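Hey everyone, long-time lurker, first post.

I ran two proteins through the pipeline my lab uses and got sequence/structure pairs for each. Pasting them in order. The first:
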Amino acid sequence: MPNTFITMQNIARTVLPLLKQNLVMPATVNKNYSEDFIGKGDTIIVEKPAVFVADEFGTTINLQNITEPSVAVKMDKLADVSFKITAKDLALSMPEFSTKYLVSAAQAIAEKINQDGLNLYKRVPNFTGTAGTTPSTITAFTQARKILNDNKAPLMDRYAAWDTAAEAKFLELDAILNAEKSGSTEALRAGAIGDIVGFKNYMSQAVPTHTAGTYTALTDVTASVNTANNGQLTDRTPYSVMSFTSTAGKSTGILKAGDLLTVANKKYVVLENAGPAVSGAISAKVYPALKANISNQTVTFADASAGGHTANLAYHKDAFIFVTRPLEVAAGKQSYVTSYDGITLRVTMDYNITTKETVMSIDTLYNYVCAYPELAAVILG
């Protein structure tokens, strides 16, 4: 008799909770979910949380004319785990099948989703710390807190993701080893560093390492911007075209998305790869967009000495949005789609008569939006 337990519905409903318990980044940011089925590569419009200003009440209210901001999101991230199974596998009980395949499949999908979320550092202009030096003191927390405070981030719902090296350093600090001092008994729990100076901190192996563009090694660079060349990326992120010039005039280096720089005491991030430079001159799209022209201002690149950095990330949940939509059920195949609490998943099984193999595929469609980059900070490591 065929196994009535190994069905696409049962598999999907088993994998989804496993996936959710391994998702860190989507659990700490805003989520945008709709039951509308779409395909990979479709572009949708997502509304960002509205921003208001509190007025002092006089004799009448001041009605604020708020246009809900929105961003365009290309749904082109498809996390997929596909594997061959046998008739013997299909005869297993659900607990056995889950142990053999589903637990590790959910972990792999979650790892990719978490990593893509942490790669949002490439849109964050504010930073603190020293590239190439692992954060090891409470200063790492307090300086990140200052950046969010200066940008008026709400005090609640703040998070920070640290790489394994930073976690190792932090766990040597008395304020974290003594859970009562960190304000949380979760400080010694796996993956959780504790609640420190207003951040819910966690360690993630998915924290990325940024390899800087070779142009950032230069220390003789000036920058100019003509705001007439300002524009928007396809996702509606505003940018300025910043022109860089090296005094030596010899560099053919490049800039990479995520390169960080300071001009006239203001921090910027490069949004897209640019270059190579021609005789030391190069232009790149940077965020935030400037409101006034600048000319021949001295540039300091964060990665000038180290050539890159670990991109630890502190953020308020409104800084980012996790966007997901259900995929359509695969036509003519055994397929099932399920969704819960802003997470969606599809399971499909197919038999290839040519190769005489049965393949199972588990996938989810999603992307992230950097809604308010000012509500986040990169802590260099």
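...and the second, right after it:
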Amino acid sequence: MNFHMPTDEEIHTAFAQGEAAVLAVFHAVATQVAALAQQLAQQGAALQALQARLAKCSHNSSKPPSSDGYGTVKRTTSLRKAGDKPNGGQQGHEGQTLMAVEHPERVVTYAVPLCAYCHASLHEIEVMGYEERQVFDLPAIRIEVTAHRAEIKVCPACGKPSKGTFPDAVTQAVQYGPMVHTWAAYFTNHHHIPVERTTEVFADLVQHQLSEATVLKASEHLDTCIAPSTEAVKGLLRDAEVLHVDESGLRVRGTLHWLHVASTERLTSYEVHAKRGHEAMEAAGILGLFHGTAVHDHWKPYFTYDECTHALCNAHHLRELRFIATQYQQAWANDMAALLVEIKAAVAATPAPTICLAMPELLAFETRYDAIVQAGLAANPISVPTVDGKATKRGRPKQSPPVNLLIRLRDFKGQVLAFMSDFRVPFDNNQGERDIRMVKVKQKVSGGFRTLEGAQRFGHIRGYLSTARKHAHNVFEAIRDAFAGQPFIPSPDMP
């Protein structure tokens, strides 16, 4: 057996080939590990995005309460903090205790015929006083029929007949009066009672069955009667210093429409439209001529109106900050929420007639605000669009919820903090949200509207009733006066 002793050159070649093979294997393994790491990172981001979406509710985002479902969210997670006020009515609260009246409509006297002790007759004894107890109750209500008769007389001179003149409101041989229409419109529009149930209310209370067409006709007639008030309110809203605007989905003809509200503490206007954005806002006819400050929740179409200034709702920001703090465990969110609440308290503690915080205080708050935003951006780098691993300007990459909020807080700082530099601007858009709430109740009760005209008519009437109520007017009387041709019309000099 011959044994070949390898040369130094052969040994070196063999080692070189082995090293290359080992390096190739290591390179392949490293490539696979990098690919797996990238895949795990993508799956982790997708899982976090899914968890974040599932964790959102009406208390930590802009989602409506109706989307929370049953038993999924505890309503104890309110943004409000526990205060020092005791339970029950507060100091200065106007109570509703039933009090005796000085002049009752009816008096029933109970005589004392005999002495309760010796049974002697007391018929001829003078009354020395009374113990009085008053009972408040409703009298029986019935439909009252009034027959209007116009005399017909024949003139003895010419032999032609002449007839008396009926009142302007009496036009038919048989018709309902204004109070029936007032009741029908009051039940359906103010208390959200469906049309069929409104007819049942009449049958039960006054023993008279109305047709559904009569109930619908009452609202249609009321919409016509309040038209001057509706236009007057829109004009006053255009001239307002601060305007609250908001929108919410509404079911009309089985499809999604949008309810738009523009309001102040004293005025309310609603518009129902198939669109949510600029087209619907133009149809409402208010924002296009408005030059004050519009308070809203950062819905982008509002910013198309550049003739007015804008302020953002910080109640929305507090909910989003709570979501980021709990879902992403980021400290800057708690810091920003605490700062906004602190600024709000500073504004509330500033005595009148001051209209903004002092300049040193403004600068100090803005400095802290900027520092928190920068800390948040440092913890959440903004994604840059890439092509083949290289940065590009094409497209806008999807950002995480913390980054989206940070960009808004950074780019719209003036609108976020508008409330501290102008005390006329509120901290939030709660006024607009409150004005939308009752119309949403109507949808919950009835499920939606059968026609767009009916939804728009309901919006006009609700705006009229809300405005009347904000001026401390009795809603029932406001409807009655409208049917009488004297609708409530607010004026600029009203308190």
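Reply from user beta_strand_b:
Welcome! Quick read of the second one: The first strand starts at residue 152 and ends at 154. DSSP finds 15 helices and nine strands in the chain.
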